[in-house]
Specification:
With 513 residues, the protein is an alpha+beta fold. It has 18 helices and 23 strands.
Length: 513
């Protein structure tokens, strides 16, 4: 489905609302509706249990959003957490200079893919993609231009060369998407942190920041956690929490927002062993995504051309959103930058005494960081489908269905009396619902014809519908309909939980990778 359909579906079925809609909305801020909050909580539970429950050497914390201002000085955010901003003089619209250039890189990749797809259709099963990519003149030219432009962008970003960024925009003749004008201002830096005041005191002394990332709460608590949980290197600290960034251009629905939620884990290792663990977490994190049904072709690794100031290696797990492959999760080798910086500015030792090596050192860190909201959007994008299915009378009809993994579906099962105006059916269905609600997240629905109710549950991703019919009154059995296969099985009421447990239980998912 295209992106507009996904956004429309998200509102219509109670997943995502624009914030403060009755006041004409607040840009780039969104609220999660009844189905959205269930799905988001399930995604967070899947991540948390994968990190903390599955690993005896990973523990969790929940650090405060407000932190001492020196935290952000030590981390480099006060001085270096900037995006290159550029304005169009005619449209008065503001853009990130690097994003404008990255979009040109994406266009070159799209042109190459178009040539490849045309050839694949022409040659059919005999098509050799690798040979075509390495020999076709047009594809080679597009890939060459793309790589040269990516290197040029990375070099300008690394050197903070704002004039160089504008020169690239001028050389490529990039126009404002809004007005088509090429009348640009100079590029300048824009700090992304939101600031506020502590109490009623104005001035630098009372200045606080809304945290732009959750990782620093982990670093400043490194010793507290290590000592109280008696962990030894290597060990990790996980956290899920809100972060805030004053994005220049916040767009593409919930992909880039000013208030968002991160799921981060910092893994502390011996210096010199960081690359071994970096590869370990790359492998495990891609398996995590695959386990919930994300196809391999929808995922790819993308190494950073421009490393952050704290990293010696960095890679993104990119997902193919409707608007192209974009970052879903980052895996970074952060060296000892964070702990060493906090140690220096605070004057407090942040070291670990290693009994095997019989010496103290500042640990190195390997980070995995995924945006919960981006993961949510990836799940919507991947699972929402339009397909033709047979009706009960043998005819075909179109349905909108969310084929999301049952363990993270917002509603696990719906209990439906066959018809509404038969008290004996509704009473039986409500009794089943009142029993199952202690077992899992379920929903009772008696409005409209049964076919229409099936479609409504399909649209929110409910994996199983339990129908109570007139035979149920005699044989104490119900029909369980599978969302994906449309197969219907007759099951005794006493066996419902046994039939559903393995399919909707997160334990089975956690054991699968």
């Amino acid at each position: 489905m295209d992106f507009k359909q996904i956004v429309s579906h998200a509102k219509e079925y109670g997943f995502i609302y624009q914030s403060s809609e009755i006041y004409d909305t607040l840009a780039a801020v969104y609220d999660y509706g009844p189905n959205g909050v269930e799905l988001k909580n399930n995604i967070k539970e899947y991540w948390w249990r994968s990190m903390v429950q599955r690993h005896e050497n990973i523990v969790g914390i929940d650090a405060a959003i407000f932190m001492h201002p020196k935290t952000w000085k030590a981390s480099g955010h006060v001085d270096a957490f900037n995006d290159p901003l550029i304005d169009n003089k005619d449209s008065k619209k503001r853009y990130r200079a690097d994003v404008l250039i990255e979009e040109q890189i994406d266009k070159l990749e799209a042109k190459a893919e178009k040539e490849i797809n045309k050839a694949a259709k022409r040659f059919g099963e005999q098509f050799d993609r690798e040979q075509f990519v390495t020999t076709n003149d047009r594809v080679l030219r597009y890939h060459g231009e793309k790589e040269a432009l990516a290197r040029r962008l990375a070099e300008a970003m690394k050197k903070n060369n704002l004039e160089g960024l504008k020169q690239i925009i001028e050389d490529l003749q990039i126009a404002c998407p809004e007005s088509g004008s090429r009348n640009w201002t100079d590029v300048r830096q824009f700090n992304l942190m939101f600031s506020t005041q502590l109490g009623n005191i104005a001035g630098e002394e009372g200045k606080l920041y809304l945290r732009p990332e959750t990782a620093q709460g982990i670093f400043v608590n490194f010793l507290n956690v290590q000592k109280t949980s008696r962990q030894k290197i290597p060990f990790g600290i996980a956290q899920i929490g809100k972060a805030f960034r004053n994005e220049i251009v916040a767009r593409q629905f919930i992909f880039r927002m000013r208030e968002f939620e991160q799921m981060e884990m910092q893994f502390f290792v011996r210096p010199g062993e960081e690359m071994e663990w970096y590869e370990y977490w790359k492998d495990l994190r891609i398996k995590w995504h695959r386990a919930i049904g994300t196809p391999q072709e929808k995922l790819r690794f993308h190494n950073h051309d421009n490393l952050a100031h704290y990293a010696n290696a960095a890679v993104d797990i990119q997902f193919e959103f409707p608007f192209g492959f974009k970052e879903l999760e980052g895996i970074h080798s952060r060296t000892d930058f964070d702990l060493a910086s906090h140690q220096e500015l605070s004057g407090k030792k942040l070291q670990f005494f290693d009994p095997e090596l019989e010496k103290s050192y500042v640990p190195y860190v390997v980070e995995t960081s995924i945006g919960c909201d981006r993961m949510f959007l990836a799940m919507l994008s991947q699972s929402l489908q339009e397909e033709t299915v047979p009706d009960a009378d043998g005819k075909e009809s179109t349905r909108i269905v969310m084929k999301i993994h049952p363990a993270i579906a917002p509603i696990k099962c719906a209990i439906l009396p066959l018809v509404k105006n038969k008290p004996e059916l509704t009473e039986k269905a409500k009794a089943i619902f009142n029993d199952l609600k202690f077992f899992t997240q379920c929903q009772y629905d008696e409005k409209d014809a049964i076919g229409r109710r099936y479609r409504r549950q399909d649209a929110i991703g409910t994996p199983f519908c339990i129908t109570v019919d007139f035979e149920s009154l005699d044989d104490e059995s119900v029909t369980i309909r599978d969302r994906d296969s449309l197969k219907q099985d007759r099951v005794h009421v006493s066996k419902i939980q046994d039939v559903l447990r393995d399919k909707i239980n997160m334990e089975s998912l956690l054991r699968s990778f």
